[in-house]
Amino acid sequence: MDRFPNAPNVEFHSPLDLTKAAVAVLDADGRISGWSTSAQRLLGHAPEEVLGRSADRLLAAAPGPRLSALCKARRPRSTVLDLRCRDGRTLRAAVTFSPLTHQGLAATVVVAAELTALRAWEAQLAMLQGLATESSVGLTIFDTDMRVVWGNVSTDLELAGVAQYVGRPASALFPEGEFISRHHPPDEDQVMEQVLKTGEPILGMHYRGRAPADPVREHVWSCSYYRLVDARGEPLGLFEESLDITDRYRAQERLSLLVRAGKRIGASLDVRRTAAELADVAVPQLADEVLVDLPPAVIEGRQPPTRSAPGHNLLRMHGRTPEEFRTSPVSYPPSSPQALSLATNRPVVGASPPPGEGVSAARHSDLFVPLLARDAVLGLATFRRSNNPDPFGPEEQTLAVELAERAAVGIDNARRYTSQHAAALVLQRSLLPQRLPEQSAVEVAYRYLPADSRVGVGGDWFDLIPLSGARVGLTVGDVVGHGVHAAATMGRLRATVRTLALLDLDPAELLTRLDGLVGQDAEPDEADGLSDEALGVTCLYAIYDPVGGRCVWASAGHPPPIVADASGSVALSAPAPGPPLGLGSLPYENVELSLSDGSVVALFTDGVVEDRRTDIDSGIDRLAHVLTWQRCPLEELCDRAMSTLPPGPQADDATLLLVRTRRLGADRVTDLELPPDPAMVADARTDTERQLEDWGLSELSFTAALVVSELVTNSIRYATGPVLLRLIRDRSLLCEVSDNAHTAPHLRRARRDDEGGRGLFLVAQVSQRWGTRYTASGKTIWAELAIP
C-alpha cells in the first residue's frame, strides 16, 4: 500500500505553464486566431465559437483601452481579468500577454489560468523557498552514493558553510556523532542504505553530536530520512530533515531524571545506600562522578553538628554495597568553593583545577551543592564532569539542587531511622531477656524473629522465671501488631507476668489477674496508641516442678504446648479454654501434665506455625515433626524449627521457647511429716542436721536448723493438722514447711518487751529469699540458703 496515496496530486508546475494553462493567439486587431483545448477546458468555448472574433467578447466587463494596450505592448505584461465562461459564469483569471513578431506579422500569445490556483501555487513556491532560506529545520540532499549535494540555510549555518562538504560523504559532517535512538540501525550509513533500498522513510531518529559551527556544546537533533526518485521512479538520492531539539531533549531528560530520582533516592532508609543512590541516578546523565561528604554524626544516626566550621570533619562515602562501603576523611580550607557552599547553603560552581592539585587533568567542571534538610546542613554533594566539557548551566544547577534536596531528605530520614532503630534495639534488649537464668529443673533454648525486621522488635515475648521449691515459671505471649507500640505493650505485660509469678500464683489465677489489668489499661484512653494492641493479647503460662515432674499450664487464647517425651513420642497438649486477655468473659483453667525426665516442651507463638500460605494445623505438624529429633541439642532443634518457616518476610512475629525437663532425684529431696506437737521441733532440727551432714553441707547446719526451727514452730502453732518439712539440695538449700492453715505469717519488728515475733525476722536475715505460696490444701513457707 502506498504510504502517501495523495502524492500524485501534488503539482509543482505553475498554472501558467504552457502545458497546463489556457492559450490563445490574438492578431493585431485583437481577434482570436488561435484557441487551445486547455482554453476550451477553462472557459467552455469551442474553437468555432471564438475563432475570428474579437477577444473583447470574452471579457466580463468593458476593457476600455486596457486590452488593446496590452496587445500592443512590446514586452510581456501580466494582469488580472474577469473572463466570461460559456455557461455564463465569471472567472477571475491571471492573464499574461506576450507579443510575437514574425516576418512582419504582429500577434500576441495570451496565457490564462484561474487566479485562485495561481495564488495557491505561489504560496507553495514561497513555502519551498522559506524552507530553503528561512526555516530552522536543516534540509540536506545526498546522492545515491550518500554524498552531500545540497543543504539549505539552516544546514549551512550548522556546518559553518555547506559548500565545503559538497561531494563528501555523510559521515564527514559530524565525525564524532552517534544515534541515541536504539530502534533502528546504529550508524548513519546503515540508516541511509536502508532507506535507499526499501524506500521506506525513517522518522524521528535522535542524533547526538557537536556541530562544526558550535564544537564546544553538544547538540541533539531529531532526524528523518526520505528517498528521492525521478519522474520514472528511479532513485535520485536521499533527503535528510533535521531539527535541533537540544533544549527539549535536555528538558525531557531532566524530567525523567527527577522521576527516576523520586523512585530510587531514599527508598532504602540507609545513609550509605542513599548516598550511592544519588550517584547512580545522576551519573552519567548529569555528571560523570558524584561525591557525597557527610559528618560522622549523620552516618551514625545522630544530629548533625551545628557549630563546627564548614568543611571540617567530614567523611567521604565510598562503595555502593555494605561489603564495599568505606569512608575517608576530607577537610576543605575556608577559602575553598566547598566551604563557601556549606557556609552560604547555596550551590557553587568550581573552576577546573590546575594540574598540580593531584586531580585528573581531564576534569572540566565541579558543582558543589549542600545537602539541606530541616534547616540543617547534612553534608556536601559534588557533581563532577571530566568527560563532558560543557560547564554546568543554570538549568543543570537547578536540577542538581533538586537531586541534592531529595538525597538530603532521604539521608535525614535514614539518619532518623538509624537513631530510632538504635533506640528500638535498646528497647528490645530491655524488654526481652538477653539470657535466661540457668536452672536445675530445665534446659532452655529460644528463638525470636520479629516480623518488622528493620525495627527489630515486635509484640511477642517469652520468659523463664525461677520460683520457690526449685520450680520454674515459663511464659510466652503475643501482642497483636508489630513495631515499637506492640513492643511497649509487650514489655509492660512481661513485667506484670513476672511480678505475678513471683507471688507464686498458679497459672489460671495468674492469667485471671493479668486479664483484669489488661482490661483496665484498655478502657479509658486510646490516645497512647497501646489500647488496640492490649485488646489482642494471648498468653500461656506454665509452672514446672522438677521434684515430681508435674507441669501445670493455662492459656489465654494461646496455642497449647507440644510435648515430646524421652522416647520421642510427640503430642499436642489438650487445649485449655480461655479467651485472649482483656475480654474478661470466661474463666481460665489449669491443665496438668506429668513429664518424664528429658521431655522436650515447645512453647511458641502463632508466627511459628501459621502463615498466609499455610494453615496453623500444617505449621503445628511441621513443628511436631522437628520435635521427633528431641535427642538433638536444643539449639539445633531451634534452628531446625525456624528453618521450616516459609522464605521471605514474615507476616507475624515468631517466638519459640524449647524446654528440656529434668527431675531432681530422691537423693536431693527429703520429706519429713511432723504431728502438730511443739515437741516435734527438736526432731525437725535434728533430722535437718543429719541430712545436711549426709549431703556434705555441715557448714549450713546451724543456720538451717535455726530456719527450720522457726518455720516449724510457726506452723505447729497455727495449723490444725500435720506439718510437712521438705529439704531440697539444688543450687541453694531450700527449706519448705507446709501446713493446712491459710493465714500467712507477716514479718514485723518486735518491741523490747515482746516475748515473740522475732522468728521470721531471723529467717529473713539469714536466708537469700523467703516467702509463702498457697496450695489447694493450705500454704507453704519457704526459705533459700546460699550454699558456701
What does the main sheet amount to? 6 strands, antiparallel
Judged by helices, strands and strand pairing, the structural class is alpha+beta
The count of β-strands is: 32
Radius of gyration: 51 Å
> Kindly, what is the distance between the CA atoms of the first and last residues, rounded to a whole number of angstroms?
107 Å
Rough outline: elongated
Counted by DSSP, the helix tally is 20
**What is the arithmetic mean of pLDDT?**
84
**Which percent range fits the helix content?**
25-40%
Instruction: Return residue spans where pLDDT drops below 50 for at least 5 consecutive residues.
Output: 1-6, 354-361, 526-534, 752-756
The main sheet orders its strands as 7-6-11-10-9-8
Q: Per DSSP, what share of the residues sits in E-state strands of 2 or more residues?
A: 25-35%
What does this structure look like?
It contains 20 helices and 32 strands. It is 31% helix and 29% strand. Residues 1-6, 354-361, 526-534 and 752-756 have low confidence and may be disordered. It has a 6-stranded antiparallel sheet with strand order 7-6-11-10-9-8, with helices on both faces. Helix 19 (701-718) runs antiparallel to helix 20. The protein is α+β, with helices and mostly antiparallel strands.
Q: What would a concise description of this structure say?
A:
This protein is α+β, with helices and mostly antiparallel strands. The protein has a 6-stranded antiparallel sheet, with helices on both faces. The protein has a 6-stranded antiparallel sheet with strand order 14-13-12-17-16-15, sandwiched between helices. The chain has a 5-stranded antiparallel sheet with strand order 2-1-5-4-3.
